[in-house]
């Protein structure tokens, strides 16, 4: 029987571990790089590549009155589609009605005055030849009496009466002539006043139009500022109507390395839906971002405004006031092509 040699307990052999895979190190490095990329993208991404936010809008038409009035009937509600010429509301203005009554009374008084002047002018035209003939007779009688007076064939008091009659005849003739000139001048002023009053009545009637408010365009009723029974002041808006094709008013950060120009192709994202468009206009001003784009506890931000039109193939555009996210379309994008090849130009097809 052979005895085995047992290992001593005070002499342990070193065991060499097998080299394993270092997956944890790579995962940690990937997380660090991802976090660094997220921080850089959050703070500097808007200045490296085109990334903007905007709102879907339409052309805005404000309906307002030029006179204080009360809303007696309201035919529309917010969000309703209206057509051009459709009745929107019925108003009643006491001030306009009082003004019309005063203008009509003033016109009646001026017409009465014009009638009186016309009658007086016709009477003067009839009396002036008689006054002129009377003056000629009185003048000839006074001249003939002077010869008889020198021969003492006529009394002095009789000669005085003839002279007085000549003076009265001349005075009457001059008065009629002067009154005729004044009447004709006043008649011209009265006719001008009549035309002015009639024009004012016509303009006020056109402005008031019986208190009927019709839609000047076809579109969608936006904000409705009044209700039935409410009173609106002069130039106070009643409602607003959004008309025309939709577009995106976007806010692009200033100081970026890219340059947005008219005609650049743009991708428009609304939630999970995407649309194509192009920059139709750039504005040389920085507008204040809407409240939904502002960050809490941050100063009021401003950004450059651009207008983006939807492509001609878009049949179902997003709803009004929808928030959008914009990015440059194509690869390379238009601004990058201009940056690499300054002489190249990219023009998007327009409808």
Briefly say what this structure is.
The protein has 351 residues and is α+β, with helices and mostly antiparallel strands.
Structural class: alpha+beta
Strand content: 25-35%
Radius of gyration: 47 Å
Mean pLDDT: 80
Overall outline: rod-shaped
Whole-number total of structural domains:
3
CATH topology of the largest domain: Helix Hairpins
What is the makeup of the main sheet?
6 strands, antiparallel, barrel
Number of strands: 12
The poorly predicted ranges are 296-300, 346-351
- Output the strand order for the largest sheet: 1-8-11-10-9-12
Which CATH architecture of the largest domain would you pick?
Answer: Orthogonal Bundle
N- to C-terminal separation? 105 Å
Subunit organisation of the chains:
single chain
Please estimate the helix content: 40-55%
Order of secondary-structure elements: HEEEEHHEEEEEEEEH
CATH class of the largest domain reads Mainly Alpha
Number of helices: 4
Layout of strands and helices, then pairs:
Blueprint: H1 23-48, E1 51-64, E2 69-74, E3 81-82, E4 87-92, H2 94-150, H3 156-208, E5 212-214, E6 219-224, E7 231-232, E8 237-252, E9 265-270, E10 273-288, E11 302-310, E12 323-328, H4 334-340
Antiparallel strand pairs: 1-8, 1-12, 2-4, 2-7, 3-6, 4-5, 6-8, 8-11, 9-10, 9-12, 10-11
Helix pairs in contact: 2-3
What would your notes on this structure say?
The protein is of the alpha+beta class. It has three domains: 48-59 and 244-340, Beta Barrel (Elongation Factor Tu (Ef-tu), domain 3), CATH 2.40.30; 60-93 and 211-238, RNA polymerase II/Efflux pump adaptor protein, barrel-sandwich hybrid domain (OB fold (Dihydrolipoamide Acetyltransferase, E2P), Beta Barrel); 95-209, Helix Hairpins, CATH 1.10.287. The protein is built from four helices and twelve strands. The strands form two sheets. Strands 1-8-11-10-9-12 form a six-stranded antiparallel beta barrel. It has a four-stranded antiparallel sheet with strand order 5-4-2-7, with no helix packed on it. A hairpin with a 2-residue loop joins strand 9 (265-270) and strand 10 (273-288). Helix 2 (94-150) packs antiparallel against helix 3. The N and C termini lie far apart (105 Å).
């Amino acid at each position: 029987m052979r005895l085995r040699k047992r290992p001593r307990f005070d002499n342990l052999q070193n065991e060499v571990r097998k080299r394993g895979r270092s997956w944890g190190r790579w995962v940690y490095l990937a997380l660090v790089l991802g976090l660094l990329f997220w921080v850089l993208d959050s703070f500097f991404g808007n200045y490296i590549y085109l990334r903007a936010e905007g709102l879907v809008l339409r052309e805005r038409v404000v309906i307002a009155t030029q006179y204080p009035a009360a809303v007696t009937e309201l035919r529309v509600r917010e969000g309703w589609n209206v057509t051009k010429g459709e009745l929107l509301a019925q108003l009643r203005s006491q001030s306009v009605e009082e003004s019309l009554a005063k203008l009509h009374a003033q016109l009646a008084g001026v017409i009465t005055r014009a009638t009186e002047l016309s009658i007086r002018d016709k009477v003067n035209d009839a009396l002036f030849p008689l006054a002129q003939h009377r003056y000629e007779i009185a003048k000839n009688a006074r001249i003939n009496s002077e010869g008889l007076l020198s021969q003492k064939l006529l009394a002095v008091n009789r000669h005085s009466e003839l002279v007085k009659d000549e003076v009265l005849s001349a005075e009457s003739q001059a008065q009629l002539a002067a009154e005729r000139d004044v009447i004709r001048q006043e008649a011209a002023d009265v006719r001008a006043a009549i035309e002015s009053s009639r024009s004012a009545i016509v303009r006020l009637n056109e402005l008031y139009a019986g208190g009927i408010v019709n839609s000047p365009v076809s579109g969608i009723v936006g904000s409705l500022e009044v209700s039935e029974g409410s009173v609106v002041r002069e130039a106070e808006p009643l409602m607003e109507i959004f008309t025309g094709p939709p577009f995106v008013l976007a806010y692009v950060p200033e100081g970026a390395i890219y340059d947005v120009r008219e005609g650049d192709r743009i991708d428009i994202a609304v939630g999970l839906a995407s649309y194509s468009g192009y920059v139709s206009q750039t504005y040389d001003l920085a507008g204040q971002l809407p409240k939904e784009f502002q960050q809490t506890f941050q100063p009021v931000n401003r950004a450059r405004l651009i207008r983006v039109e939807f492509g001609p193939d878009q049949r179902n555009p997003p709803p009004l006031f929808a928030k959008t996210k914009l990015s440059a379309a194509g690869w390379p994008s238009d601004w990058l092509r201009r940056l690499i090849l300054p002489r190249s130009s990219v023009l998007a097809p327009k409808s």
